[in-house]
Design goal:
Order of helices and strands: EEHHEHEHEHEHEHHE
Shape: globular
Number of strands: 8
Strand content: 5-15%
Helix content: 25-40%
Number of helices: 8
Radius of gyration: 19 Å
């Protein structure tokens, strides 16, 4: 059977938040990368995921104009061509690379932060090689055990599409109550949550074969493009959609060649980080303004960057973080 051609679409940047009416170039630009929904799908991405990032975009713009030094910050949300990661094609990552080039075309050589969530987090990490990328924020990064994603997560021909409200994937800094679709649903097929079987699985973990596949996937994920960038990963310890250990191993590899890599763990929270949304948003804001606008990093960020593994890569995000930060 002949392979069906992909529908021709173009990625696009959403409306610029924080842009000056007189057209003055901003000091810096943030590109928000939502989750895309499925390991494999050529459907259009859900608009809900992108819309859920607007409150965080407005927060960043307001925060940049307050404090010292004040800075003009423009925030765009990337709209992908397709809903799926799509294996080796890695469409969201290529869309993110296009987005950075488009930002430079529009605004000139301004520093850029790629802030991704779920599948968008993996895309942000992959697309960090552009010379104008200053920093990368990866929240609940989706890192499946194989390039095609977890078994059963692939969209089959003729499969019924999930309701759009169930396709919003971006955790943490999003509006409360938004569903996370990202590369998987709440099933036993998720990475790191495979049910034990009779083939040598541990009672409370994945089979040994699944753990080996996880390690292999981490080793194949590139990290050279992260050299010279500030990188922050945030992951819930109880994430059922993508194993937190995968992001730790990726951060560990990146830290070997880049001291400015840190990772925070949100204990007893899941993929959407719904119990610590305020803390995650405050941490993300502090990191982005620190890397793009010259603001002072909060002490936990400073400590996490300076600490060697595993301390700096398993830094706990304290409840109430951000309450004492100046606005």
């Amino acid at each position: 059977m002949a392979q069906q051609a992909l529908p021709e679409r173009e990625a696009r940047l959403g409306r610029a938040m924080g842009a000056d009416e007189d057209g003055t170039a901003p000091h810096a630009v943030v590109v928000l990368l939502p989750g895309s929904g499925l390991p494999r799908s050529t459907r259009r991405p859900s608009a809900v995921a992108a819309a859920a990032l607007r409150p965080f975009a407005r927060r960043l713009v307001r925060a940049a104009l307050q404090g010292e030094p004040d800075s003009s910050l423009v925030v765009h949300t990337l709209h992908y061509r397709y809903r799926g990661w799509n294996g080796q094609a890695a469409h969201p990552a290529h869309d993110a690379e296009w987005a950075v080039a488009e930002v430079v075309r529009r605004y000139g050589d301004v520093p850029v932060c790629l802030a991704g969530f779920d599948v968008g987090a993996r895309a942000a990490l992959r697309a960090a090689g552009h010379p104008m990328v200053e920093s990368v924020l990866a929240v609940s990064p989706w890192l499946p055990e194989t390039e095609d994603g977890p078994p059963g997560g692939t969209e089959e021909p003729g499969a019924r599409a999930a309701p759009s409200g169930a396709d919003a994937e971006s955790p943490g800094v999003e509006s409360p109550g938004v569903e996370v679709g990202a590369a998987g649903r709440r099933t036993a097929e998720q990475p790191g949550k495979v049910a034990a079987d009779d083939a040598g699985a541990e009672p409370d973990g994945p089979p040994r074969g699944a753990r080996a596949a996880n390690r292999a996937a981490c080793e194949s994920e590139p990290v050279r493009q992260l050299i010279g960038r500030h990188v922050l990963m945030v992951h819930g310890s109880d994430d059922e959609h993508t194993a937190p250990e995968l992001s730790y191993r990726l951060a560990e590899r990146a830290k070997k060649s880049n001291a400015n890599v840190c990772r925070f763990e949100v204990h007893t929270d899941g993929h959407r980080l719904r119990h610590h949304q305020a803390e995650v948003a405050a941490l993300a804001e502090n990191f982005i303004l620190g890397t793009l606008c010259g603001r002072e990093f909060a002490r936990p960020l400073v400590d996490a960057m300076a600490a060697p593994p595993p301390l700096g890569l398993r830094m706990p995000l304290a409840s109430g973080f951000g309450r004492s930060l100046r606005r």
